[in-house]
């Protein structure tokens, strides 16, 4: 009967240790890795050009804030 609560406590402790191990503050000298251009969520310049070309060609735009209009590109 004592094995059930002991096993539950062990599992809960392991789960707590596993989830709390990722809570680490970033040191100032480690922050340069977070500022890489690969970590940026916006599109790169080459992707922006290709995307604007495709939007004008297709005549529509999505949720990216581009102009919407006809397929001729004359908004």
UniProtKB/TrEMBL annotation:
What does UniProt give as the signal peptide span?
1-24
Alphabetically ordered keywords of this record: Signal
State the source organism's domain of life. Bacteria
Q: Which InterPro entries match?
A: DUF4266
Please report the stretch or stretches of sequence annotated as the DUF4266 domain: 26-75
Name the Pfam families on file: DUF4266
- Name of the protein: DUF4266 domain-containing protein
Name the lineage: Bacteria, Pseudomonadati, Bacteroidota, Sphingobacteriia, Sphingobacteriales
């Amino acid at each position: 009967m004592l094995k059930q609560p002991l096993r539950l406590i062990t599992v809960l402790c392991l789960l707590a240790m596993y989830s709390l191990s990722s809570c680490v503050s970033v040191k100032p000298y480690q922050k340069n890795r977070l500022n890489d251009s690969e970590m940026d969520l916006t599109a790169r310049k080459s992707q922006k050009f290709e995307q604007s070309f495709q939007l004008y060609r297709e005549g529509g735009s999505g949720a990216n804030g581009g102009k919407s209009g006809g397929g001729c590109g004359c908004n």
